[in-house]
Amino acid sequence: MNCPACGSPDMGNKVLDETLSYGGQSLTLHAMRGEFCASCGEGVWDVESYRRYTEAQAGLLRTVKGDVGDDIRRIRKKLNLTQTELSKMFGIGKVAFSRYERGETHPPAPVVKLLRLVDRHPDLLREIGDV
Ligand SMILES: [Zn+2]
User: Fold this and answer.
1) Contact yes or no for 23/37 (Cβ under 8 A)
2) Tens digit of pLDDT for each residue in 15-72?
3) How many domains does the chain have?
4) Domain ranges, residue 75
5) CA distance 122 to 116
């Protein structure tokens, strides 16, 4: 097989660890097998490793989105606020929190950090509303 990126015939089998990262979470897949190009470094996973790679990627995406969405919903309920009230407080679109909670959109990091701060110090909520 020639390299799909540069066409070099110099492809060799390798076994290596591949680390996936998404939304501050990472995951390492061990003993991934594939053929790698000696000239440009481009690689092609074998069927089994490719399957593991795509499954891990989907799982990571689900974990990150699911966790954050559930966390946001939990904090919002604890603060006894509607999605609209919270959006108004943060000065963002009305439907934003509904999207975050359903995992459709990944919330911006500052929003998540601020919410987690309010989760620990609920008395700060009043001050956010005043700013
Ligand atoms: Zn190549």
Assistant:
1) no
2) 999 999 987 888 999 999 999 999 999 999 999 999 999 999 888 887 777 678 888 9
3) 1
4) 11-130
5) 10
43: CA distance to ligand 1 center in Å? 8
CA 18 / ligand 1 centre spacing (Å): 19
CATH number reported for the structural domain that contains residue 92 in this entry:
1.10.260.40
Q: Is 51 inside a domain boundary? A: yes
- Domain membership of residue 4 (yes or no) is no
| 112/114 Cα distance (integer angstroms) | 6
Q: Determine the distance separating the centroid of ligand 1 and the alpha carbon of 6, expressed in angstroms.
A: 4
For residue 36, the CA-to-ligand 1 centroid distance in Å is 8
Q: 0.70 exceeded by the pTM?
A: no
The amino acid that residue 19 corresponds to is T
